[in-house]
Predict the structure.
Amino acid sequence: EGTVKIGSMICFDREFPESARILMLKGAELILAPNACPMEINRLSALRTRAYENMVAVATCNYPEGHPDCNGRSTLFDGIPWLREEPGSRDMCVLEAPGEPGVYVAELDLDRLRTHRSDDIMGDKYRHPEKYGILSNPDVRDVIGGEFVHW
């Protein structure tokens, strides 16, 4: 209920941790990420990680099976890896849609997310931006060389 702060990143942005981090630092609580690619385990893991490390919800929508190089599996990760009232960790995946076309609805508990953001140590509480200069240094390139070859 109320206002939700939304950020957006496109399909390939999910591969770069900085994309979601910048949106979180600008106040995003929910990141919307449209996709047009196969949502396989590594891409789903990247989205789950973006939600975890930034304490944000991440919702994706993807083309269904039958569309070239796509397989559905739109998702919602709520960004809450554990709850005070429950022992251990929990899966942040609220929704993983099947490959078929359709309208899939999931509920996101913003109050619970906001409580988690105020109580936990992830996100920006212990950042040390003074140590991250190399991240924005344009002279650091080709650490991992090679050219992309489509598989």
About this structure: The chain has a mean pLDDT of 90. The longest strand covers residues 30-35. The first helix runs from residue 17 to 25.
